[in-house]
Design brief:
The protein is of the alpha/beta class and 347 residues long. 48% of the residues lie in helices and 16% in strands. The chain has helices at 17-29, 41-49, 52-55, 73-79, 84-94, 106-117, 152-168, 191-202, 215-220, 230-255, 259-279, 305-320, 323-334, and strands at 3-8, 33-39, 58-62, 99-102, 127-133, 138-142, 176-180, 208-213, 225-227, 287-290, 295-298. It has an eleven-stranded mixed sheet, sandwiched between helices. Helix 8 (191-202) links the parallel strand 7 and strand 8 (208-213). Helix 1 (17-29) crosses helix 12, helix 5 (84-94) runs parallel beside helix 6 and helix 7 packs across helix 8. The radius of gyration is 21 Å and the shape is globular.
Amino acid sequence: MSLTIALDAMGGDGAPEIVVDGADLARVRHPNVSFIFYGDEARLAPLVAAHSKLAAISTIQHTDIVVSGEEKPSRALRKGRGSSMGLAIDAVKKGDAQGGVSAGNTGALMAMAKLALRTLPGISRPAIATMVPTDKSECVMLDLGANIQCDERNLVEFAIMGEVFSRTVLGLAKPTIALLNVGEEDMKGHESVRQAAATLRDIDLPIEFIGFVEGDAVWSGAADVVVTDGFTGNVALKTAEGIVKMYSTFLRNAYKSSPLAMLGYFFSRRALNKMRAKLDPRRYNGAMLVGLNGIVIKSHGGTDAFGFSHAVGVAVDMIEGEFNERISEEFDHIGSFGVPTQNVASS
């Protein structure tokens, strides 16, 4: 199956270099993919030409309009359609590409993608989802910042979309789902969380809902999908990232503290390298804007080429796994699943 991925070549701290180099790495892993680069042709052309095999499967569409990292979503919407980000999203809308990837401004990307692509039928709000490492394997976590406040229906929608991703893209036969809460007891948490739990227990789908989990259980692998509102999810993820960085600094300083400690590093470095690879954020780069009528992936703005290639890989996996088609099938099957639909819209 031949695929085309639209790339916002000017989005991110290291653009356009890391975008081009990342696409070249992704080309090796996904030989069925071609690329459309949107951005400054004068800068892009020599970078793409330096990778002859990439150049053979790529085209460049020029624009000198760029959405900056500090741009407010409202301003990006006004000027953004002709930007590298806006054109990449538009390519997905028109069908010129099956998916789009950007390392640019998250708020602008979500606002522009929602306006251009709309949401899938039956879904009230899109969510930002990503994979995180756990003691057991990996976990899909959502929402991570698209929706600061969520009601019962939003949380149930997120649970279904996360379950579909785990099943179709990660290959889990029956993924477990949990709601992030301040305790595991049924009476804990906000009313919307408790109502969402009741709906997920009764819903007419083969979903394995295991109840509430606390923050530490996310990382122990208690569930394959962890659902929360965007405020809580974003704080939890950023806190975990900060702890990993702090731990890495402490460990590095400890090994430098004495000749004996440095000798200990010499004998343990192979195990440490395995741990570093497991926790490498680049391996989990590529947040999914799930619930949109099109595949759009948000790469971390500060990633390198290796990380960007993984974001491209997430897009490819979602397309080949027919992620949006599977979501539509699930929602067609359950209808409104007993939750009031006044907030549901296709836009």
